[in-house]
User: Fold this.
Amino acid sequence: MNGGRAIILGRIREALRNNPAPRPHTSHSQSEAAADHNGHAQREWLPKVGETLPERIDLFAKISEGLTTEFQRVPTMSAARHLITKLATESQWKKIGSHSHQDVDALLEEIELPIVRTEKGYAINDLESCDAGITGCDVLVAQTGGIMVSVESAGGRALSVLPPHHVVIARTSQMVPDLTAAFEHVKQKYGKQFPSFLSFITGPSRTGDIERILVLGAHGPKRLTVILLD
Amino acid sequence: MASQSSDFQTLSRRYTADKGFRAFIQKGMSGYYKKRDQNKANFQDWQGARDLAAEIKYEAINHLDKYLLEFEEKITARGAKVFWAQNAEAAREYILKVAKENNVHSIIKSKTMTSEEIHLNDALEKQGFGVVESDLGEYIVQLRKEAPFHLVFPAMHLTRRQISDLFQKELGSEPTDEPEKLTMIARDIMRRKYCEADMGISGTNFAIAETGMISITENEGNARLTTSLPKIHVALLGIEKVLPKLEDLSLFLPMLATAGAGQTMTCYNTMYAGPRQLGEPDGPEQMHIVLLDNRRTELLADAEQRDSLGCIRCGACLNICPIFKNVGGYSYGTTYGGPIGSVITPHLRGLKDWKHLSAASSLCGACTEACPVKIDLHHHLLQNRRNGAKTAPNPLEKISFGGFSLMMGHPSLYRLASGLGRIFQPLQGLVNGTILDPLRSWTDSRKLPTLAPQSFHEQWKKQRNRKL
Amino acid sequence: MRISLFVPCFVDQLYPNVAWSVVRVLERLGHEVVFPESQSCCGQPPFNSGYWDDARSSARVTMKAFRDAEVVVGPSGSCVTMIKAFYPDLFKGETDELAARELAAKAHEFSSFLVNVLGVTDVGAKFDGKVTFHDGCHGLRELGIKSEPRALLANVKGLELIEMCEAETCCGFGGTFAVKYATISTAMDEVKCASILETGADTVVSNDSSCLMQIRGMLEKEKSSVRSLHLAEILASR
Ligand code: SF4
Assistant:
């Protein structure tokens, strides 16, 4: 059962038949077929991203600051482990969520807290009561200070949004310039077998719904930490 | 029965007379203006980005059947069910049916203006389904039994004091004047709701034909939770929301954030391709896509105004609109307020009852300039006025413009009348500002200009016309 | 150059000095100014209210009056917009569409004509005072006039330009809107006037007399000492 499918499609076709709309007035010469563009056209207009990796990392760091994403660069995995242990003690974590992922597992090797692992399913209340969710990611996006996660790279849909502190581990090789590159990565990595969930996370959860005043941690994490491994 | 038009007059006068309220709205907007301008400046070329966005929307809307079918095919292949709803009633009934068939107990919603359009909450509640709005602003207006004040900022008309009082009354919480504490009260309540709910209803910002995905833009994380934890996900979207390619999002996501909220990107931009897939640890077992027409095809048939289907509901035109900022969101009496609402409501709900909204504008064009997808908003208001005058002219106006065109169409009559005007001007002084003054609505607040002793025409004739 | 002067009806009736100022500036620059007397109104009031048939009858008079003109110049961003931007829409599919397009092509708003057609930014004017400039919406958004009046003002001796925050915000006039929705129109006027007063300028200048009528109406009612002048009046003074 699909409702008024035939009727709606008929109405659409009727509305469009021999009834062309004026083309949008554009000040720039656009490619005639916008539908055929591959996402590169927009790079000309969107915010500028540096050419080299260090420039991109700097841009990501700068935007992170504005977003209050805690961005930490570490030289080695053992330094990363040190960092996460420190975070756990300082924030008095009692229980954390994580998932099966090479870098995440390596990162948590020395953590001795109870861990709720999501890859095989979990009880919602169990995950909800975790103090932090530790995940990997697909890519980091320099242009927006964003982190792209998916079912695969972040242990499902909820691990990266339900606990109040989200910690992401990434490698510099995962830094891409912009959203277009992130989508290219997705298409390359998954082909047609997309995960059912892909998300750009750009800073900790926030709201401005009360007098337009910024409050962090509306429904998602209050804190977002990105650990970038060189 | 009062008409929509007189309701607008009454409400807009009431809101506009409240200077404190106007200042409050203006203050709320001021931070947004600053951040929006900074973010626009970060673009290498904001105008170029608008041009491209308008081109992509043009392509999508003018091949809507093709892209909708592609979208349907792809997302169906991923296990989602697509329902085509001709009108509000069909959409509501389908959603009710899904809820009943699955024995749903508790429903959580994330922000969706489309559900406001079809009055979904009412319908669900009448059938005994509890529904909770999870977006903070929406939750606040839901508790007040109000509609959203603004497309993007539903509760921007309320002070923290009002919200604290509301929470105290409805939720029994302690009074506080800290937005942070108020937010946390809602967060705690909502946490329990997410864990209990068995159906999540969301809106959709973009549908992607190429990959069969829907994309949802938000800041709070409530939409992500709504679409992750309950076992059923219903996504509601107007048929106009489809974009051809995944990469199109790399333009639209930052533009929506910049125009709508003055952000580089909103906090979460999530793409869903179906319900939980094999081997995935969480996510809903069922995903239902409700594609809503509800007279959008009427707008589509109007080639002149078809571009208004490209609207991404960013709210930028409301934020800049001097009318909106004075009369506020409730004066309109529509689901979609501000300039875009004034343009599309006559198409969606009838020109006769809604054409006054197109008259309530100085046609300054600030909306068109702000619109990220370059909808020709203020010219559409003009076209609505033309269509309105054609189908249902206002008798008084028709007579006066008839007289006007008679006069202006005959230069000699024009000059005769202008002479008469100068004779009658002193008489206006006698009634100035009184109830007898036909121009009272002007003279209440502004001084009337005085006619020059001699028009330019006459002066020129005397001084320059060598023929005399 | 032989320039045909287009004088919008309310300038004709209320502000003849604005039209004379245009004449003076153009003549001072060595051009011949003619005034086709059969002109009446561009048709904007019925056009804006949706009565396009009535608008067309006014517009036809204007088109006829300027049929043989080489260039047409008018001191109002709004009325020139009517001709330049809206006549082609108004006459789309009509027998006189071509005539409408021809007039649209040769019509110019005064400041834009000086700067973009004549290439003049210094007209040798002198005006002592602090002024702030209001951008009329039509001139600004339909015709893209923003820098031209400022370039002209910059060369007026003795004049100091102080920009107001809300320069591009609508004054709230909008033709019949100002009377039909007087409360909203007034509220917009208040925002505009507050922004003008905030600059400390003694004169508010615009290239549109209709906006000035709205602004002046409130300033006078509030007994403010701030004057309002059309750009042409400033440029004509020496
Ligand atoms: S009309 Fe344009 S500016 Fe207004 S809400 Fe839609 S997209 Fe945004």
